[in-house]
Amino acid sequence: MNTVKPNYTRALDLKHGRVDMSHGSGGRAMAQLIAELFAAAFDNEYLAQGNDGALLPQAQGRLVMATDSHVVSPLFFAGGDIGCLSVHGTINDVAVMGAKPLYLSASFILEEGFPLADLNRIVESMAQAARAAGVPIVTGDTKVVEQGKGDGVFITTTGVGVVPDGIHLSGDQARPGDKILLSGSIGDHGMAILSQREGLTFSAPIVSDTAALHGLIAAMLDSGVRLRVLRDPTRGGLATTLNEIARQSGVGMMLHESAIKVNQPVEAACELLGLDPLYVANEGKLVAICAPADADRLLAAMRAHPFGRDAAVIGEVLADAHGFVQMTTRLGGRRVVDWLAGEQLPRIC
Amino acid sequence: MNTVKPNYTRALDLKHGRVDMSHGSGGRAMAQLIAELFAAAFDNEYLAQGNDGALLPQAQGRLVMATDSHVVSPLFFAGGDIGCLSVHGTINDVAVMGAKPLYLSASFILEEGFPLADLNRIVESMAQAARAAGVPIVTGDTKVVEQGKGDGVFITTTGVGVVPDGIHLSGDQARPGDKILLSGSIGDHGMAILSQREGLTFSAPIVSDTAALHGLIAAMLDSGVRLRVLRDPTRGGLATTLNEIARQSGVGMMLHESAIKVNQPVEAACELLGLDPLYVANEGKLVAICAPADADRLLAAMRAHPFGRDAAVIGEVLADAHGFVQMTTRLGGRRVVDWLAGEQLPRIC
């Protein structure tokens, strides 16, 4: 993102203006958009270098790199918007590797005609999320596509972080006997989006759980427990995330339905729409797998953090070469919890 | 990009299949698409970790991070496609900072209904470009949007590299007296896209110059000259790139039209369409600014590399607080070379 600002006669009209094709041209209009909107909001020493890439200090530790495109619809929803979501999502993907997130890049694909006021609101939300997380957006890019070739705005963020020595988290580290912990309730993000999309209203509003989890993760790592796996159960929900881990580690799992918290309005919305909350996306929750003797200590560390207040042990890892994830139900039965098949909720993140 | 592969009954139909919404669900269909198409093509030890981010070795040197979204239309063009372009473009943005590119991430926004055969061709092209450049695609993401909410495929790549000690290149380093060098002809990429879009044919075909320039740049750095600025003149063309540098450095420039190579078919196409090649995008060219005494040595180093064969000194940096870029024309006159205003060529990269 070249942040060099040419001379203009007039400032951008952030109230009534709209994105037009010239904002993606590489010329004067694009430079103005970047300078007055993006660089002004993201404001940091790296972006201010004004080159096409950012020059950053040497990083101490193994690197982690993660990327996510965000195409959520609607762009604004209860509890957040595509802007903060795109910051939280990538910070979480870096942090669940055991890394301290250091830098983000952000690339925008804008649709011609998109209101600059909405873009400004989204960019402000990103900037605030990045500042709150202490992870600057150091470089970026902007492209514009014709009306009908995009959908308002898509945002791709990439994160870089460093893993301290001695930490090794990976989806293939789960071992039979390990405990499975979940940091809080499931389904909030997905049902916030879906209920808004469908125009559903409930007695209590459903609010997305979108949040940056690196603070919670740092507290968990600091507790000194033997963590094996961390992952944030986003698209595909808790069920798909656990199936991925089971497959990677070559183990089975037994979950306990009664231990998995689902907020009442989420449960009601899922029932109404015939959805299983186990498959609904989360954006501020994590799954942790640890050595069995460490589960209590890990649980205490999680519950001491605001984003882990409702943490619980939700199951155990089993020896099972087939990698089946099963669950004891509230009624005392047993069911298989398979991968998500087909499409449950499009454009959830 | 989680590369864990669930069990399937059938392989992906890469001949007649199409992208559907389930390929973005986070579930079984997405996992299959990633495993059979992306992970198979990009194949490297980092991607094979199968987590949502890639764990990479510690990097020696200051980091550089650059990102670019690619929305080029058409997706396939003479000399390349969106796949290799997305690899080359980001490698170049990292390399012009003086960095050795180390890793790429790639994130895909696919439109429902897009042929898997085309996607496969694009991914193969990316994989080949990444292999040829020696820069692995270590992590990624895939999202799917409904038909009419995207345009086939958009690809966002992010690159990370390291800058060796002692190298400091930035757009604000140009000084009066410095020489301005260009690595070859201009306008080839933009006119290849545009002539294809408009259905124009010329006696000689116009072929995109898309290429990874980190090899050329390494040779230039190895020559030991005092390089001040490197930049690749993409969107907005040579004119806009030089205006950016002039603004950043607080200097003027005097270019010499006769020294700037424009291939004959590009010149003919520009004339026909009323375009100025100075503003047309390049994807395999670079501008270098160096201390005046080093220009000959730098020119020799550039000409010794296949991508710098047609390199030339095209002008000088002047003291000028207004930052004007001027040019002596072939006819002996003088003109101002301003920033690109408005939109010359939409969706060129």
TrEMBL record, chains A, B:
Q: Where is the PurM-like N-terminal domain?
A: 50-163
Q: Domain PurM-like C-terminal, which positions?
A: 175-326
* Alphabetical GO biological process terms: protein maturation
Q: Which family does it belong to?
A: Belongs to the HypE family.
Q: What is this protein called?
A: Carbamoyl dehydratase HypE
